[in-house]
Amino acid sequence: MNLTISRETLLVGSLLLAVTHCSTQPQVRTAAKSARNGGSESCDRAVIIDAPNESEGIAAEYEWLARNYPGYKRLGQSLGACRGFRSDFVEIETATGEKRTIVFNIDRFFGKW
Fold first, then answer.
1. What would the pLDDT profile of 29-44 be if each residue is shown by its tens digit?
2. What residues contact 22, with CB distance under 8 A and at least 6 apart?
3. Rounded Cα–Cα distance for residues 105 and 99 (Å)
4. What are phi and psi of 61, to 5 degrees?
5. What pLDDT shows up at residue 7?
6. Minimal CA–CA distance to 61: which of 23, 82, 42, 89?
7. Distance between CA atoms of 100 and 16, rounded to whole angstroms?
8. What is the pLDDT of residue 111?
């Protein structure tokens, strides 16, 4: 059996493979416009992480923290629920010594591998 594949077919197949395996950057947004420092210390101002899976979602959380609280220290982290959505509560100490709990809405990626 002799199979021949045209260059065009190979090119289209390669392009489709590349597109389907591309990952998009997780989107991060706050639930309310009134969030102080673009952040959240309550369920009303939870930071929504729109990621395709847990590893990218967790990475997006840490990127958000580093961007919004440069020099922060993570003190603790726990899972919970907030007004019907799954949440990640991350306790931090800011570079100026303030202690805060940041609430992340993780519904979009929780349990996805």
1. 544 332 334 456 789 8
2. none
3. 20
4. -60, -50
5. 45
6. 89
7. 45
8. 85
CA angle (109 as vertex; 65, 84 as ends), nearest 5: 90
Closest of 111, 93, 90, 106 to residue 26, by C-alpha: 106
Instruction: Calculate the CA 108 to chain-centre distance.
Output: 9
For 53, list phi and psi in degrees, rounded to 5: -155, 175
CB 104 within 8 A of CB 47: yes
Least confident window among 32-36, 43-47, 94-98: 32-36
Give the β-pairing of 27-30 and 85-93: unpaired
Only one residue has tokens 């059996």, namely 1
Q: Report yes or no: 105 and 85 within 8 Å, Cβ to Cβ.
A: yes
Provide CB contacts within 8 A for 104, sequence distance 6+.
40, 46, 47, 48, 49, 61, 64, 87, 88, 89, 90
